[in-house]
Design a protein that fits this description.
The protein has about 240 residues and is an all-alpha fold. It has seven helices and two strands, in the order αβαααβααα. A two-stranded parallel sheet has the order 1-2. The chain is globular.
Length: about 240
């Protein structure tokens, strides 16, 4: 891994994209400011987080847009950097730089809203949320890994394609899970009972402790993140061949 190559990749990115990034951060700050002002001094963080997620999910499509067009693709693939370095450079941009930029934009919007409400005599801005931050962070980084892979894999409308395939896979998985539970549940129907008397019975199931459930949940999230970034690397390698 050559640090100089990573720096050159980032320099090329910022030369081309800094105006677009500032524009998007400004749009997000304006949206957060407007929502905070209109909702009053008791403002939920959920709206700002939701809008930020939309910006974040679209971002990988921008990172790899040159990869899926003819002339820019040749130029991008000819940049003196390995596949590892190209994927790592974009991973760090998405996972650190852009998330930090979105957080700063939200912070700016909230700060301006607080200043406005204070000047108008409403007592400033008071933020609240019912979200579990650990689950939220896990969801953000898993989703980003999925859309990152989509940005590398799909050639056109990568964000919409990723959403479409994700919905399809999720639907199939939900149907299979429901079918499995239904079939297993049928074996629990007592003899001589009618179908209307059927009820689920999972008394024999040993439930995980809360700590065990958290370990399993975050472990699965970690595996998914590594898995999709590994797929991104492999797809990048196929594209260059």
């Amino acid at each position: 891994m050559n640090t100089k190559n990573l720096i050159n990749l980032w320099k090329a990115y910022f030369i081309e994209s800094w105006k677009t990034d500032l524009f998007q951060f400004g749009i997000l700050a304006a949206i957060v400011l407007f929502n905070s002002i209109t909702t009053g001094n008791g403002t939920s963080l959920s709206f700002a987080i939701g809008v930020s997620l939309i910006f974040l999910m679209i971002y990988p499509e921008r990172l790899f847009r040159n990869l899926h067009s003819n002339s820019p693709k040749i130029h991008y693939l000819s940049v003196p950097a390995s596949n590892n370095e190209k994927v790592l450079a974009n991973m760090l941009l998405a996972n650190i730089y852009y998330i930090a930029g979105l957080a700063a934009a939200c912070g700016l919007g909230f700060a301006l809203a607080h200043l406005y409400l204070t000047m108008r005599g409403y007592g400033g801005l008071h933020l609240y949320t019912n979200l579990d931050y650990a689950d939220l962070i896990g969801f953000v980084y898993v989703s980003l890994a999925v859309f990152f892979f989509g940005g590398v894999y799909f050639r056109r409308k990568t964000t919409l394609s990723t959403v479409g395939v994700g919905l399809l896979v999720g639907t199939v998985f939900a149907m299979l899970a429901s079918l499995t539970l239904w079939v297993n549940g049928l074996t629990l129907i007592p003899k001589g009972s009618t179908f209307n008397e059927f009820s689920w019975s999972f008394d024999s199931v040993e439930y995980l402790s809360e700590k065990g459930a958290d370990i399993l949940k975050y472990g699965m999230m970690s595996v998914m993140i590594v898995y999709f970034y590994a797929l991104s690397f492999l797809r990048m390698k196929e594209t260059e061949v």
